[in-house]
Each structure stands twice: as C-alpha cells, then as structure tokens.
Amino acid sequence: MTTDLYTEDFKDTPWWWEAAPTSDADDELPEETEVAVVGGGFAGLSTALELARNDTEVVVLEAEAFGHGASSRNGGAVSGTNVGKGTSGAGNSPVERALGAEKMRELLAGGGQAMANLETLVEREGIDCDYARRGRFTGAYTPTHYALMAHKVAQLNAGGEAEAALLPRSEQRREIATDFYFGGMTIERAGGVHPAKLQMGLLRRCRELGVRLRSHAPVTGIARDGAGFVVTTSVGSLRARQVVVGTNGYTGRLTPWLRRRLIPAASYIIATEEMPEDRVRALIPNDRVISDSKRVLNYYRLAPDGRRVLFGGRARLAAGDPRDCVPILYRQMLDVFPQLQGVRVSHAWTGGIAFTFDFLPHMGVHDGVHYMAGCNGSGVAMMTYLGTQTAQKILGQQNRPCAFDGLGFPSRPFYTGHPWFLPLVSGYYALRDRMDRAAAG
Ligand SMILES: Cc1cc2nc3c(=O)[nH]c(=O)nc-3n(C[C@H](O)[C@H](O)[C@H](O)COP(=O)(O)OP(=O)(O)OC[C@H]3O[C@@H](n4cnc5c(N)ncnc54)[C@H](O)[C@@H]3O)c2cc1C
C-alpha cells in the first residue's frame, strides 16, 4: 500500500473531532460531594446528568480530556438489539442456556429501552448530534450465516419492536451497492448519531445543571470513609457519599475486581476523503448503519453529511497505531465497495472497548462502589442507559431493577485484566472467517 492512500492532511485522530473536539474542564474539587463519578464518557456523563436533574451534587473526574474515551471515537451506530452477542437467537448458546429464555427476553427488552432512553435524552436535553433512526443492515458473510439469521430475526421480533426482516441476496442492492454479502437482515430499531457531538452535548448539559467537571484528574484511589468514600485523584481528594465507576475499555488498576471481569480490546475506523454526495449516497441508499456477520466484524456508514464513508472494524483486537490498520481496513472496504478504489483516507483512529466473558453489559455494586461496564463493542445506547439507570438507582427512583443489574459477572481463574491472548484470538477468528468464506465458494 503506497502513501497515495492518504490525503496530504491525513490525521490519526477521529474525524468526529473536526466538529466536536475534546475539551478540558477545571472546576475546583469540593471537599465533599454526594456522588463522585469516575470517567467522563457516555456512562459517566449520563449518570451525572440524571443525578443533577434531580438536584443531587455530582463531580465527574476524567483522567484525560473530556472526549478522550470511546464515546467520541465510535462509529455512532445506535442499536437497541445488540444484547447477547455471541448468541444465535436459537436458544442454544451457553449464555442463552445459562440465563434461560425469560431472562434473555428481559435483556433483549432492556436493549430496546436503552435505545428509547437515548432518544428521549437527545430530544429532552436538546442535543444537536445528527441523530436519525434509519435502521441497520447486517450483511451475511456466508450462506450459512444467512440461514442462521432467520433465528435472530425471529428472536428480535418476538420482543415486538425491532422490526427485523431477512433480505435475500437478490434484493440486497436495495440496501447496499455490493454483491459481497449473501443477503442479510434489516432492523428498523437502529440509528446513527454523531458521537462526539453527543458527548459534547452531554457535557454541556452537565455543566448547565451544575455538575462539577474536572479533566486531567485520574482517580488513583477509592477508600471507605465511614458511610462514604475518600476519592483520591492526581489533583487532590474529596469525600463522596457514593462513587460510580464508568471506565469501560479504559478500566485500570483502580478497580482490580472490575478489571478481572473485562477484556479490553481496540477497535479502529478510517474515514475517506470527501466525495460528491450522490456518489456516496448511492453506496448505502437508505443511509442505514451497516455491519456484517463475520467473527472479526466490520461496521460502517456514511458520515452524517453524506460526503464520506466511515469504515470500521477490529482490524486487530490489541491496541496499536491506527496507521497500521489503515491498509487492512482499506482492503476490507474495497472488498465491499470496489468502486471506491483510489479514494484516499483522511483520518484513521482507534479507541478502547471492553468485552465480558458472557458477552453481556453489566451494572451493579461491588464493595459499595457502583459500576457499569462491558459494552462488547456497542455501548452508545447501552452505556448511556446504564448510566441513567445507575443514577435512578442511587436516587431510589427505579420502578424495578434494571435487567442488567446484579447479573452474575464472570471472570476466569488467573485472569487479572491483561488480555495476553487477544492477538491469538483475533488471528484465529480471522482464519475461521477466511475458511468459512472459502467454503461458501
Ligand atoms: C472505534 C470504536 C467504534 C465503536 N463503534 C460503536 C458503534 O458504532 N456503536 C456503539 O454502540 N458502540 C460503539 N463503540 C463502543 C462505544 O463507543 C462504547 O461502548 C461507549 O462509548 C462506552 O462509553 P463509556 O462511557 O462506558 O466509556 P468511555 O467513553 O470509554 O469513557 C471511559 C472514560 O474513563 C476514563 N478513565 C479511565 N480510568 C480513569 C480513572 N482512573 N480516573 C478518571 N477517569 C478514568 C477514560 O479516560 C475514559 O475517558 C465503539 C468503540 C470504539 C472504540
């Protein structure tokens, strides 16, 4: 791959940051607060916002600039049906068997509530973030995957609102200008957002409601202090009656119990240079967010202004230089859209996500500290929802416990949070994808 691949002004930061860059905040730390929130992404800010709306004092402590985490780096696909990854919908996966059909239905309904929560929040708070509910298309990478999608469609529709449907290969071009997939499924309950504008909007609303915000203040200790906690940061300490941790893919030594339950991984995105709008819109005529059924999946979409393609994937699962993944993602983009040959890349970036051993998102309390974590790659709606739910739990306002609260949260013997096995796993998954595709002919 030559340097012709890159525009002259290529950047290794998110294209989203052109419109909504990261920002600093230096509110003075109070001696005491009702709630201290660790992490200033969707999870932390939505917790703070809900608390502040209910007249509760909150301080949000962010290790870097606000917007540093995955919340302003993601693909902006909003999904209400992403619960239970790794489940087939046929009821036969280990997670489905362990939880049982009823709990699984409850969790799937929780996915729908997560999306509704995001839509309510965007509208109620007047956040200008290019949100549009235009649905998703998931391409089947092999004919077998297409056949299995029938179970998934049935599972999603059993809950009522997903409006999922199979789309045979013969009609695929209605959704996407490619013959790369063997058909796929459409899901109406999905949408797209400008994630960095959403992050910025949440931050603005928190500020307006009096939340104290402090960037570049990594929390280094949380210690019990009577009925509350002392929270220590690099810029000072404060007492808090309650502590909430929303660090997801950036969870570190601060919370070893949580770290043992999360598998941090990286995801990567490239943005193409600007192109004429009609050329871009012809690629995905209904402007849906797209993903596929590969083990090492790709996800992509049009930029909200319809002038470029944003193409993402787990080009490798381990964190690394986004430039190293450009040739991989570019090749994958051309597999789907050979008509983009020659188009240059203007941005490439990466961010941290967190898998769980049961592929489910979790919220709960450990040693008195609230947490929400485990986005499994899709947390725009989910982590925002778990933040809102955690706040409502603290406020004692929940009508009933959140479906994701207090689930058994598995780890593995001897696992301490260092995912040494990721390169092996991603290599193995990529090989299995290639074998499946080769077998499909
Ligand atoms: C490239 C990429 C593409 C993605 N695409 C999608 C998508 O299309 N759709 C979707 O639904 N999801 C997607 N995701 C996942 C989604 O972005 C995340 O699930 C979501 O943003 C997680 O939000 P969060 O608030 O939990 O964590 P984050 O936004 O990651 O925030 C965690 C914050 O905690 C801070 N922190 C960590 N430790 C400390 C400490 N000790 N003290 C203070 N602060 C600390 C970090 O600096 C960070 O800012 C993607 C993620 C990536 C990286």
Keywords:
441 residues; alpha/beta; FAD/NAD(P)-binding domain; nine-stranded mixed beta sheet; eight-stranded mixed beta sheet; 9 helices; 30% helix; binds flavin-adenine dinucleotide
Contiguous low-pLDDT stretches (5 residues minimum) are none
| CATH architecture label | 3-Layer(bba) Sandwich
- Number of DSSP helical runs: 9
Tertiary shape:
globular
Can you count the beta strands? 19
* Bound heterogens, unique: flavin-adenine dinucleotide
Q: Taking Cα atoms only, what radius of gyration do you get, to the nearest Å?
A: 21 Å
What is the CATH level 1 assignment? Alpha Beta
Distance between the termini: 27 Å
Q: Please provide the ordered H/E string of secondary-structure elements.
A: EEHEEHEHEEEHEEEEHEHEEEHEEEHH
Topology:
Layout: E1 6-11, E2 32-38, H1 42-53, E3 58-61, E4 77-79, H2 94-124, E5 136-139, H3 143-158, E6 164-167, E7 184-187, E8 190-192, H4 195-208, E9 212-214, E10 219-225, E11 228-233, E12 236-245, H5 256-259, E13 262-272, H6 277-281, E14 289-292, E15 298-302, E16 309-313, H7 322-336, E17 345-356, E18 362-366, E19 369-373, H8 380-395, H9 422-440
Parallel strand pairs: 1-17, 2-3, 2-12, 3-9, 5-14, 12-19
Antiparallel strand pairs: 4-8, 5-7, 6-7, 10-11, 11-12, 13-16, 13-17, 14-15, 15-16, 18-19
Helix pairs in contact: 1-4, 1-8, 2-8
This protein binds flavin-adenine dinucleotide (FAD).
Flavin-adenine dinucleotide binds next to helix 1, strand 4, strand 13, strand 17 and helix 8.
Structure characterization notes:
- By secondary structure, this protein is an alpha/beta fold.
- It has one domain: FAD/NAD(P)-binding domain.
- Helices cover 30% and strands 24% of the residues.
- The protein is built from 9 helices and 19 strands.
- The chain has helices at 42-53, 94-124, 143-158, 195-208, 256-259, 277-281, 322-336, 380-395, 422-440, and strands at residues 6-11, 32-38, 58-61, 77-79, 136-139, 164-167, 184-187, 190-192, 212-214, 219-225, 228-233, 236-245, 262-272, 289-292, 298-302, 309-313, 345-356, 362-366, 369-373.
- The strands form 3 sheets. It has a 9-stranded mixed beta sheet, with helices on both faces. Strands 2, 3, 9, 10, 11, 12, 18 and 19 form an 8-stranded mixed beta sheet that branches. Strands 4-8 form a two-stranded antiparallel sheet.
- It is globular, with a radius of gyration of 21 Å.
- The mean pLDDT is 93.
- The site of flavin-adenine dinucleotide has 43 residues, from helix 1, strand 4, strand 13, strand 17 and helix 8.
